[in-house]
Amino acid sequence: MALFDAILELADDHLVLGHRLSEWCGHAPMLEEDLAMPNMALDLIGTARTLYDHAGKLEGAGRDEDALAYTRGEREYRNLLLVERPNEDFAHTMLRQLYFAAFMEPYWQACLDHEDEVVRGVAGKAIKEMAYHIRHAGEWVIRLGDGTEESARRMREAVDALHLYTGELFEEGAAEGVLPARAAMRPVWEDTVGRIFAEAGLDMPEGAIALSGGRRGEHGEGLGHLLAEMQSLHRAHIGATW
Amino acid sequence: MAETPLWEVFIRPRNGLSHKHVGSIHAADEVLAVQAARDVYTRRGEGTSIWVVRSADIVASDPDQAAENFEPTAGKVYRHPTFYEIPEEVGHM
Q: What gap in Å lies between CA A1 and CA B60, rounded to an integer?
């Protein structure tokens, strides 16, 4: 079941972050971003669906993607704390996206020669999506960080609020020995984020405490509310389909 | 958003076709304009290439000169290539 657990972690990361991004739909600061964020959300949710479907088959207990997404509680979710952090403002949202995509792009690269065919297939598709997420979020981080007095202040506040959740990206969790080593991504991640921070005039925090616990089901209060909203329809109408 | 410039977006659907005007977007600069055009106008596989141009840089014909610009062509049907016989061998054009 080692691969099941490892894939479930990745699927939860993608679903929760996709849901967070989708919360902007209809509320973004401009129409262009109101389409861009759901676009990115759909990339993430598409990846999550394929991963859940595959995990369900590996488990062989009859759980499909809906069962895995909609009938597990907060303590059973294995996502990173980073991806469940609330949207707050546009600076927080873009920085969270950059932090995650800057990890996933090289991680999917490392998954390209994995022995599991579905993992290889997802990786091939997701690399391009993550490359765009890095570009989209990165360009905004640069402009907000190097923008007006207010945008620079908000960007710095986002870094202060979110950076301590980035250490968890590199913890092995259930991936250990099953998927590529997560810790090995740190140099590439630091290079990607560092280049963008340099252009944005932002300082990369050093030696900060890394918060973790998501992989053990120990989440912040935000995830319970997110799941309550996301799962309410399925729980009220079991087996509902579009 | 009032000061955010407007950009016209042109998409080329396939190789061999021309870029075609599809609409406009707001963006602060040219890099964000291409991103916004991608996010707004290529969501259903519409394109293989994007051009953006600041709307302010477009020079348009004067609507008041529409008559002198366009009406004189109305009587010149001989400019349409409909008076030539196409040899069978050429096939469908």
A: 65
pLDDT digits (tens, 9 = 90+) for A129-174: 999 999 999 999 999 999 999 999 999 999 999 999 999 999 999 9
Q: How many domains does chain B have?
A: 1
Give the domain CATH number at A40: 1.20.1260.10
CA distance linking residue B62 with residue B7, whole number of Å: 20
**Global ipTM:** 0.85
**Residues of A whose CB is below 8 A from B32:** 139-140, 143
Burial group, residue B92, by CB count within 10 angstroms (0-12, 13-18, 19+): exposed
- Among the ranges given (A95-109, B5-19, B37-51, B65-79), the one the predictor scored with the smallest mean pLDDT: B65-79
Do the beta carbons of residue B55 and residue B24 sit within 8 Å? yes
Q: How many angstroms separate the CA of residue A146 from the nearest CA in chain B?
A: 13
For residue B1, is it within any domain? no
A101: CB partners within 8 A, 6+ apart: A130, A133, A134, A137
The pLDDT of B15-42, averaged and rounded, is: 96
Q: Which positions in chain A have a beta carbon within 8 angstroms of at least one beta carbon in chain B?
A: 29-33, 35-36, 39, 135-136, 139-140, 143
At residue B2 the predicted structure's pLDDT band, cuts being 50, 70 and 90, is: low
Domain at B69, CATH number: 3.10.20.520
Q: Based on the structure, what is the number of domains in chain A?
A: 1
What is chain A's alpha carbon radius of gyration, rounded to the nearest angstrom?
A: 17
Return the beta strands (E) in A136-192 as ranges.
none
Instruction: For residue B83, tell me if it sits in a domain.
Output: yes
